[in-house]
Amino acid sequence: MLTNIYHITYAPSTKAASLFFWGCNLNCKGCYCQRRVFSSMLGDCVGYNLQQPKMAIPPTQFLTYDQVMEILSRVELEEVTFEGQEASTFPFYGHLSEEISKRFASRNLLLTNGYELPDLRSTHKIGFGLKAVSDEIHRDYTGVSNARIIENLRKLYRSGKDLVIESVFIPGYIDLEETERIAEFISGIDKNLLYIILPYFQAGNNLWKRPTPDQMEQATNIAKRHLNRVLAFTGEEQLKYEVVSLFPDPVINEYLEDG
User: Fold this and answer.
1) Domains identified in the chain, total number
2) What is the domain-level CATH number for residue 172?
3) pLDDT tens digits, 192-228
4) Which InterPro entries does the record cross-reference, listed alphabetically (predicted)?
5) Among candidates 168, 153, 178, which has minimal Cα distance to 234?
């Protein structure tokens, strides 16, 4: 059976693998996959400079179910992350996560936009990407209403799943005002939920700028008015451990072209 998995990475020191899925049910204007389809954790080994925006070529090689399991069997595993564009679009997500959990005794993490909730019985933690609370902004950014997504977020919280909520800070668009709305909304569910604020990197044909460290600090302080646990990144953090590509191996520069 062919999957929509096109990339697998592995961190030897943490025994953690990431499966990257192609295909999404949202059409985000700032989707990072417009800029890069392979993991940013691989750094310069793919000849990619974050200061020089490029347009990424969509992947053309996809793994079968058996190939995914064979590749994962080559390494020691304690955690597997399901990410990429949107892992929940894979029709057999529940079966794959269950088989991985059984075979490797792994802790499974799903990064999702929350538009569709797959079978999560073998998913142990969820990183929920909430684009915006204001429906008008969400529609403009993704092409769809956030009503279904917000209901699914509430449903996940009620289920007792280990849950982290993330949003991307975009100066002049999803900015301080919207970040505070997101934090206030989350506090209405649980003030102790972890909220992670990520910086926007230029992607696609957008005029938005990458936020400065000072802007990220402002966003953090505003969110902390409402939540007890807030973490923000500037995009300048140094990777603390090695990440390698298990597929394709090696990742080659011809997957990218100048934008």
Assistant:
1) 1
2) 3.20.20.70
3) 999 999 999 988 889 999 999 999 999 999 999 999 9
4) Aldolase_TIM, Organic_radical-activating, rSAM, rSAM_sf
5) 168
